[in-house]
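Schema walk-through. Below, the input block comes first and the output block second. Nothing else is stored per chain. Lengths vary across the set, and this one has 270 residues.
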Amino acid sequence: MKDAHSIGPEKIIRRKDDGSLEYLGDELTIEEPLEIRIGSKTLATTMRTPGHDDELAAGFLVSEAIVRERQELSKISTRRENIVTVNLRPGAKFKLNTAQRFGTISSSCGLCGKTSIDAIRQNFPAIKSTNVRIDIDTLLSLPEKLRKAQSDFARTGGIHAAGIFDANGELKIVREDIGRHNAVDKAIGHAFLDELLPLDRHLLLVSGRASFEIVQKALAAGLPLVAAVSAPSRTSSAWFWIENRLSAGRRTQLQDRDRKLFQPQSSRSD
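--- output ---
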């Protein structure tokens, strides 16, 4: 639930044409740290916009391949300020050393805190739906639909959004956050907690660029389509090609350097 303030009042300084300054009231997006714990162990600390912290934690655990079924979570507690505690069901195990992030995950870096290249890539089941298609006119209409649902962006102009749409272009879930990776985790976490995964008949739209981490989070949720208002990175599009799990309208030639990037260290020859 969105039980915290995501926007706060501030003042901005504006220089007028005559060189004088004026002080005006404005609304700014709040950015605060959130510590994600599993039991008594700290898993990660991320800079996020308060609100939907339970969904953020759930989506983060899904994206890190720590949980895959709703039944694996026993309880999520957000009673302490800026701390969310996840309790796994009795008997559930995870390797903290491989999942733990070191340092704070900034709002612009969803992969920060990973200690090795091997730790960046996660393994997820193949997406079941390989024939999902969306009409081009419907696709082009989605950014405006997402924009209209961004209530916090309308007030601040400084917050990302992630929207999950069905194949007919109907917006099912929208979440906002100062970090686009957090917005995706919140949207995926909402679907996970409602036992809607995999989202193999849906599309993810993000307000920023389509980076590797966004693609990987989509794969974690079983999303076959990813769209963004900005361009994809070369690595994210190459990874689409490597995995052969997400639908892509155009596949680029994969060079050796891209293949080597995602090979385990033990299998590299150089």
